[in-house]
Amino acid sequence: MFQGPQSCRNVEDFRRLAKRRLPAPVFHYIDGAADDEKTYARNTNSFDDCDLVPNVLAGVQDIDMSVTVLGQKLAMPVFCSPTALQRLFHHDGERAVARAAEKFGTMFGVSSLSTVSLAEIAGLTDSPKMFQFYFHKDRGLNSALMAKAKAAQFDVLTLTVDTITGGNRERDLETGFTAPPRMTPSSMLSYAVHLFWTMNFLLRSKFELVELKDFYSEGTKDPITVGGYFSSVLDQTMNWRDAEQLRSEWGGAFCLKGVMSVADARKAVEIGADAIMVSNHGGRQLDGSRAPFDQIAEIADAVGDRIDIILDGGVRRGTHVLKALAAGAKACSGGRLYLYALAAAGQPGVEKALLNIRSEIERDMKLMGVTQISALNRDMLRYR
User: Fold this and answer.
1) Selected catalytic residue, list 28, 90, 91, 281
2) If I label 362, which of 63, 154, 219, 237 is the partner at 20 to 30 A Cα–Cα?
3) Could you tell me the residue ranges of all domains in the chain?
């Protein structure tokens, strides 16, 4: 029985530790997904339908796992996908993840629903930073978010395109999860039992959606579900013209998160996007949709020579990363991959989670007989 983060060998170990340390509504917000959670499960299970074919006698003492994606050189082919509300999971929130990502030479994604300011995050780390942009009805807010990301010198702007309305996240409805947390008769006992979390939440700096609080009370003063936030304040008229205009206004590396079809990947190329994150929002939006890994090969065949392809979601093991890269992705990203670790132990937890995946990638590359990421190719995969 493991006792702490240093004994956690994999994502599932961190998941169990996070479940012990978080009130039930907060844990199930991280752990849950839409409807019957079939797509959530498929995101990881899809890797099981593909086998790796290793080569041997390749001289693999020295391994280079670095990749260049969105113009940024990363020391490992995995980065921390942007996720919301991080100070609900640990009182350091985005600060912990930013420092851990820098230590491992990889990119850190920051959500529009961040609980630490972009300016503060910029002062914490010099490593590559991605700002994830939600397209709000309030165009003044949209302009303010872009201005703050520019002022903080973020390297990448990523527009999320799969949250045109909130997914049916039934676990959140069952537990009564909101941001900020709202105590209900059914959840009060769980908050009381997890006294360490509750005292941190009550006694440390006030929880708020830092970059949104001056425009909306929802999520800072007025409790709301994340799905409710998407449905009520995001602009459902958003279209390809808006995405193209946003890219032009940003003027730097630009990515679309939530692209799943070849047709949309081609449109992303047409509007001048530098990358796409093939993602279904961790299974939290459209249940029954395809898993990212299931789509990588055909998207790479269609546009892989014209745009960076990032697999986002489902990654739990180093072998998952190698399969995605061999299929045509330039890099992988994940949220739960590090969120369980953040909840379990803050920055040391995130560092251990990144160390685990980096160690697996290094070992698996040697076992595959490759010394550079570029040596991975479709010949090394067999689909069942």
Assistant:
1) 281
2) 154
3) 5-383
